[in-house]
């Protein structure tokens, strides 16, 4: 299972492997408090895309489209997350205030699609 969780929410035993998926470290949180297994900043949106989006809800759909393009062009950045998800529970940690429209939500969808494509196809 792949979950997303704000960096400001406490870690939980059911989180499994935890990876920070933001390009910038969350303000006011020390490394010990965040308790992440890795920081995949290269899997985060580019600085240009992040700044363009600015968490403006009217730009959400276009942000999703552009970010998915960036992910497709850089599989090596998110491959470790895919491998972690294949071996157990995975939590993508992000710092945005918006719990629905953030890069972790897009990355979660992307990883779930990638996992589905790896599953053997069942014949009827």
Automatic annotation (TrEMBL):
This is Uroporphyrin-III C-methyltransferase. It comes from Methanothrix harundinacea (strain 6Ac).
């Amino acid at each position: 299972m792949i979950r997303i969780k704000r960096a400001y929410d406490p870690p939980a035993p059911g989180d499994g492997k935890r990876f920070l998926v933001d390009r910038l470290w969350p303000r006011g949180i020390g490394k010990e408090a965040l308790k992440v297994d890795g920081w995949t900043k290269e899997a985060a949106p580019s600085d240009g895309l992040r700044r363009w989006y600015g968490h403006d809800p009217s730009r959400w759909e276009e942000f999703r489209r552009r970010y998915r393009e960036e992910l497709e062009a850089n599989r090596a950045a998110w491959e470790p997350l895919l491998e972690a998800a294949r071996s157990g529970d995975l939590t993508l940690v992000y710092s945005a205030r918006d719990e629905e429209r953030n890069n972790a939500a897009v990355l979660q969808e992307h990883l779930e699609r990638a996992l589905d494509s790896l599953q053997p196809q069942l014949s009827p």
